[in-house]
Amino acid sequence: MKIYISNQIPNQIRENLPQNNVTYLNSSSITESDYSQIEVAWGLDATVKDILNQNDHRLKWIQSFSAGVDYFPKEQIASQNIMVTNTSGVHSVAIANTTLLYALFFNRDLNLALDMRNQKQWNDKRNYNQLGLLTKKRWLIFGTGHIGSEIAREVRLLGGTTVGVNHTGHSAENFDSTVSDTNYDSELKKADIVVNILPLTDETHHMFNADFFEKLDHLFLFINVGRGPSVNTADLIDALDSGRVEHAALDVFEEEPLPSSSPLWNYKQVLITPHNSSVSSEMLPGVKEVFLTNLKSFLKDGKPSEKIVDLSKGY
Amino acid sequence: MKIYISNQIPNQIRENLPQNNVTYLNSSSITESDYSQIEVAWGLDATVKDILNQNDHRLKWIQSFSAGVDYFPKEQIASQNIMVTNTSGVHSVAIANTTLLYALFFNRDLNLALDMRNQKQWNDKRNYNQLGLLTKKRWLIFGTGHIGSEIAREVRLLGGTTVGVNHTGHSAENFDSTVSDTNYDSELKKADIVVNILPLTDETHHMFNADFFEKLDHLFLFINVGRGPSVNTADLIDALDSGRVEHAALDVFEEEPLPSSSPLWNYKQVLITPHNSSVSSEMLPGVKEVFLTNLKSFLKDGKPSEKIVDLSKGY
Questions:
Q1: In terms of domains, do A106 and A249 share one?
Q2: Looking at the partner chain, which of A10, A101, A256 has a beta carbon nearest the beta carbon of B108?
């Protein structure tokens, strides 16, 4: 059986894969005749897209490198009855830790410390009320899946209150309460911190727009660790300018890499990280483990066993 | 009864104090004749030191503004049978939250994000092994009192292992294990993060010196949220230069304010905060509550009831 490993997959997890009856190909080693023989793709790149466009291909399963599969040609894949699995859960702790870092950065006014460093000048003028704690903060978290639940777990451990937003308002682990995505207005007014960790779909595209921000009186911190296009960047900037949103921490952007011309770079109250909130020394072993578990099942039963994406929903 | 409120005490907690049979004086309102009549001092300043030098003063109790009383003339106070109470416990959560921030800052390589901001230039070159999580980190915490225990509590909630160092190695709440302050060498080699939260005494002065740092093979992060003079700064800089200590986060310094000429400002791997790790919107109400509790007891029984300092130990 032939498996294609896409350019997305880092070298360090391509080693020591099971070899029984399996041939691994990559973008350098693949030949014309392989296109119709590959049954499994690990990751998505131009070659996988080429295979999908062949009339006679045998691709049955694509294991995504990422948790989100918004960049997959989902309709085409669904119409060809190909299964897609993601790496949901692998990134949860790193994203949750990063989310705590964002909250602590602004609660402890770390910009003051960094200004001191730039100027080599001590500044201990104390505004007691400016420095906060994570206890008693109220978090409104859009997305109650693996990652949202891990964020909520860590927030609650440190004394915060967690309200989750999902489709139906169904209860979810580690959330003190939940509301539906059509019924969160009153929660928005009470929140100190809003986090987006929703998958990118037609419904969530530009969900955080002027209409959303106008519902706020004052938000201490807006965090996006989901997908960039869920936020209308111009509208977020307006909300920062008007003071409705006091701080923002953004790991993802409508355009990535974020261009040097972006006005976001000029805002001291915006913390920008390079789409790495999910990255950690534990990420690649986790990604590999998901692939190996699903590959074992595929070799035995002809299909992967875990983290199967519902292509109609997009996650 | 006359109570002196020192210049250390912020205005916002001088309001609404009990008025029955009590007169409050400050550095502007105090007169020569008051020096021999004041029984209580809230905070320590030059005037309180002047009172201590009077032969005929009646001072019986000093309520410290801070948790540490290293800057008190303790021998003189002890010889005059004056009681000292501190604010131990009031600062614990803020210091613990700040300690998590330090650990996350370097684990998530936030310097990269801040360099991006300075240069308005995206950089997503991923070194997967450079980014860490708080889970599975091993912390060696010098000091297992209120603050050390709160740091350990929060660290453990997020999956870390906590080893405490105290005088005898007695067990302490929230610590997975403890060792004595003469027996921590093997723990030092295993630690990822070392935290100092010991009070400053003759024993702890320059305790973190070349001898200490030479026992390390490689430490990810050294944190000082105790007192500056517990660290020999020149020796810490040598340890940073040699790579034994990879990062440091310092809230306190041998000389405060830290002078602009300090070489510490030049180290990107050193995070400097202006002795504010304990400050938060909850600090002043907490400080006031301790004073009011002790004042109530003093007015009734002639002595304060809680957070009494052992002047022979210095904490």
A1: yes
A2: A101
- Which tens digit of pLDDT belongs to each residue from B194-236? 999 999 999 999 999 999 999 999 999 999 999 999 999 999 9
Residues B70 and B167 grouped into a single domain = no
Q: For residue range A89-112, list pLDDT tens digits in order.
A: 999 999 999 999 999 999 999 999
CB contact under 8 A, B101 and A97: no
Mutate to test the interface with B, among A104, A151, A225, A251 (most CBs of B within 10 A): A104
Structural domain boundaries enclosing B108: 92-272
Distance CA A259, CA A261 (A): 5
For residues B134 and B49, state if they share a domain: no
Residues A30-44 pLDDT 10s: 999 999 999 999 999
Across the range B66-82, mean pLDDT stands at: 96
Q: Is residue B311 part of a domain?
A: no
Is A179 a domain residue? yes
Task: Please give, rounded to a whole number of angstroms, the shortest distance from the CA of A258 to a CA of chain B.
Answer: 6
Q: How many domains does chain B have?
A: 2
Q: Taking the CA atoms of A112, A113, A117 and A120 in sequence, report the sign of the dihedral they define.
A: positive
The verdict on B258 touching A (C-beta cutoff 8 Å) is yes
Nearest-angstrom CA–CA distance, A10 and B274? 41
pLDDT digit string (tens) for A57-76?
999 999 999 999 999 999 99
Question: So what's the ipTM on this one?
Answer: 0.91
Whether residue A84 is found in the same domain as residue A106: no
The Cβ of residue B103 has, within 10 Å, a number of other Cβ atoms equal to 28
Rounded to whole angstroms, the Cα distance separating B145 from B55 reads 36
Best of B110, B115, B258 to mutate (most A CBs within 10 Å, chain A): B110
| Partner-chain residue, chosen from A101, A112, A126, that has the shortest CB–CB distance to B101 | A101
Query: Which residue on chain B is closest to A133 by alpha carbon?
Result: B94
Query: Is residue B125 domain-shared with residue B96, that is, in the same domain?
Result: yes
Does the pLDDT at position B127 exceed 90?
Answer: no
Chain A nearest-CA distance from B296, in A, is 26
B87 — pLDDT class (breaks 50, 70, 90): very high
CB pairs < 8 Å spanning A and B: 142
Whether residue B241 sits in one domain with residue B114: yes
> Is B309 inside a domain boundary?
no
Q: Does B115 touch chain A (CB under 8 A)?
A: no
Q: Is residue B265 part of a domain?
A: yes
Whichever domain contains A53, its CATH number is 3.40.50.720
Residue B161 or B129, more confident: B161
A149, amino acid identity = S
| A98 and A112 belong to one structural domain | yes
Is B93 in Cβ contact with A133 (below 8 Å)? yes
Same domain for B232 and B200: yes
